[in-house]
Amino acid sequence: MKNHKYKKIILSITGIVLIITILIISLLLKAKTQTIQTIETSLTQAYGSRQEQTMKETIPAPVLTVTKDQTNPLLVHLSVQDSQTTITKLKVAKVTHVEDQVDFTVQGTEISITPSQSIQTTYTVAEEGLYFFYTENQAGSSATRKIALTKTFPITAKATVNENNPYQIHLEVANTILDIVTIKIALTSEVTSDTYFETQGTAIPFTKGKKVTTDYTVGAQGIYTIFIQDEIKNTQTLQVRAVEPDPISIQATQNPDNLNELTVKVTDVSANIVMMKTAEGENLDINYFKGNGLVVPISPAREITKTFTIEHNCTFNIYVKDELGSSHLYAIVINNLSEQTDTTPPILVIAYSTFENTNQDVQVTLTANEKIRPVQGWTLSGDQMKLTKSYSENMTEQITVLDLAGNRTTQTINVTNIDRVAPNLAVSYSTTEPTTEPVEVTISANEEIQAIDGWTLSDDQMELTKSYLQNTEETITVKDLAGNQTTQKIAITNIEVSQELVVEVHYSETKLTNQNIQVTIIANLPLKPLTGWTLNSNQKELTKQYSQNTQEQVSIESVSGKTITKQITIQNIDKTAPVLQVEYSPSVPTKQNVVVTIKANEKVQAVDGWTLSQDQLSLTKTYSANTEETIQVSDLVGNITVTKISVNNILPNEPSDYYPITADGYITQIAPGTTVEEFIQNLGVQASLSTPTGKVKTGMTATFAGKTYTLVVTGDLNGDGKFDLQDLSSLILHLAQYEQYILEGAFLRAGDINQDGQTDMIDLSTICLRLAQS
Question: Is the pTM of this model over 0.70?
Answer without folding.
Answer: no
